[in-house]
């Protein structure tokens, strides 16, 4: 995984997903196998996301700190690393400096 | 053109394009014919964009007011409408209420 990550042969939805008044923005892509991912950006701040399905968060740019529900550890992630969040759970993500770019996969 | 606009069989680049400290964010898609588009969001504010190649801006959500360089008219655009900007020119775009979603094509 690196900054040049790309997804081929997908369907891209034109309208963005906007959270926290624009501090987190993503675009949805649909893959040939029917799965869905979102390509997103997190601006500096702290945000809580709940999950329905389990999620894989791949960081493709920037840095973030993450606390997953029911965990008492804060973990750091840079571009090229990823973390999983169980379904029916959630995570608090903190971005401090430059924006954090991610790919979210719904497992 | 409407909010459900989508682009099939494209390559989507994972890392976003960020302008004006995150007030304008887009993701790039590459089409089978080799052309490039960006799917973007403009948060409330006023922004100036210069152009190199001519651009087609299709509004797929929200509303904006636009003044193209060397023009003395301000034109309004809602979802489903579009405007062209010559190359080596530019435009001032103002978004007032809800975020404005666009598709930018490089002609």
Topology:
Two copies of one chain form a homodimer.
Chain A: E1 6-13, E2 17-19, E3 24-30, E4 36-42, E5 45-50, E6 55-61, E7 63-68, E8 75-78, E9 82-85, E10 90-95, E11 100-106
Write structural notes for this entry.
The structure is a homodimer of 107-residue chains. Chain A has one domain: Jelly Rolls (Sandwich). Chain A contains no helices and eleven strands. Chain A has strands at residues 6-13, 17-19, 24-30, 36-42, 45-50, 55-61, 63-68, 75-78, 82-85, 90-95, 100-106. In chain A, strands 1, 2, 3, 4, 6, 9 and 11 form a seven-stranded antiparallel beta sheet that branches. Chain A starts with 5 loop residues before the first strand and ends with a strand. Chains A and B meet through strand 1, strand 3 and strand 4 of A and strand 1, strand 3 and strand 4 of B. Strand 1 (6-13) of chain A pairs antiparallel with strand 1 of chain B.
CA(first)-CA(last) distance of chain A:
18 Å
Low-confidence stretches of chain A: none
Mean pLDDT of chain A: 95
CATH class of chain A: Mainly Beta
Basic shape of chain A: globular
Oligomer: homodimer
How are helices and strands ordered from N to C of chain A? Answer: EEEEEEEEEEE
CATH superfamily of chain A: Jelly Rolls
């Amino acid at each position: 995984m690196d900054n040049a990550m790309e997804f081929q042969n997908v369907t891209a939805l034109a309208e963005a997903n906007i959270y926290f008044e624009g501090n987190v923005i993503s675009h949805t892509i649909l893959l040939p196998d029917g799965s869905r991912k979102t390509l997103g950006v997190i601006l500096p701040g702290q945000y809580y996301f709940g999950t329905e399905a389990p999620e894989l968060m791949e960081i493709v740019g920037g840095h973030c700190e993450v606390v997953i529900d029911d965990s008492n550890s804060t973990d750091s992630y840079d571009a090229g690393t990823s973390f999983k969040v169980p379904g029916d759970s959630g995570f608090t993500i903190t971005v401090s400096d430059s924006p954090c770019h991610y790919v979210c996969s719904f497992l």
